[in-house]
Write a structure and sequence with these properties.
This protein is an alpha/beta fold. It has one domain. It is built from seven helices and 13 strands. The strands form four sheets. A six-stranded mixed beta sheet has the order 1-11-10-6-2-3, with helices on both faces. It has a three-stranded mixed beta sheet with strand order 9-12-13, with no helix packed on it. The protein has a two-stranded antiparallel ribbon with strand order 4-5. A hairpin with a 2-residue loop joins strand 7 and strand 8. The protein is globular and about 65 Å long.
């Protein structure tokens, strides 16, 4: 029961942490870090979960998850951790889903937190019994709303990064354009748990704005970029932020 309460609390914190404030998500994310995670005798063998901690990422972000996970794995290996095959987690997770059902309903877009708790709890028990994995790393690509400043360089600040808007399709942004409206962006959240579901680390970093200002209509509007997460510099900046202070660049 205590483990299930810990999952519920962590899910709530993730949801609260990904909710933007009026200034577009503030500056640097306030990470939490248990220094025991640096002890590789206790937590040297990690597995990166192929599922999110909570709701799945939006479809247009989910297609980039494998690449982000590879980058995280590279950072972990460089820091001296052994990254075990994600199939270890996946097999245990699928068994939990067979027993308890799928936690997320794509039709309604809702996560059944109780089912998620039971599936994750069973997954962790199976991993503990198998004996190799010492901690689990979750990497969530999460969409959020950010806001560009209405004056000056029209910058948006979120999860420790600063981004400027992109615009295409016209001669320039009208002087009376309303800048005070939410624009989609993406950030990376990293959570690490031991096999008692005690959280060892929680961090986040902003990556990029995923919409551009389309100047073709008579009234310009924000439009989804056809290609997202293709700026390696932005991704590495977000990854560095999401892993601090656990791992330094």
């Amino acid at each position: 029961m205590r483990a299930l309460l810990l999952i519920l609390t962590a899910l709530c914190l993730v949801a609260c942490g990904s909710t933007p404030s009026g200034d577009g998500g503030g500056t640097a994310y306030q990470a939490t870090y248990d220094a025991r995670l640096a002890d590789k005798a206790q937590f040297g063998r990690l597995v990166i979960a192929p599922v999110n901690f909570g709701k799945p990422s939006r479809n247009y972000l989910a297609e980039h998850e494998a690449r982000i996970d590879r980058m995280v794995a590279e950072r972990l290996a460089a820091a001296g951790y052994e990254v075990l095959p994600s199939e270890l987690f996946e097999q245990a997770w699928k068994e939990g889903v067979r027993n308890w059902g799928e936690p997320y309903n794509p039709t309604t877009g809702k996560l059944n937190e109780t089912v998620f708790q039971y599936v994750l709890g069973e997954t962790v028990k199976a991993l503990a019994a198998e004996g190799r994995v010492q901690a689990i790393v979750f990497t969530n690509l999460e969409e959020m709303q950010v806001y560009f400043s209405p004056s000056g360089n029209h910058q948006a600040h979120f999860l420790g990064v600063t981004r400027r808007p992109s615009s295409r399709g016209g001669e320039g942004v009208p002087a009376d354009f309303d800048w005070v409206q939410g624009v989609d962006a993406v950030g990376l959240y990293v959570n690490v748990f031991d096999l008692k579901l005690q959280r060892l680390f929680n961090g986040a970093g902003g990556i990029e704005v995923t919409e551009y200002l389309n100047l073709k209509p008579s009234t310009p509007r924000w439009t989804r970029e056809k290609t997202v997460l293709n700026n390696d510099s932005f991704i590495r900046e977000g990854l560095d932020l999401a892993l601090k202070p656990w791992l330094q660049p």
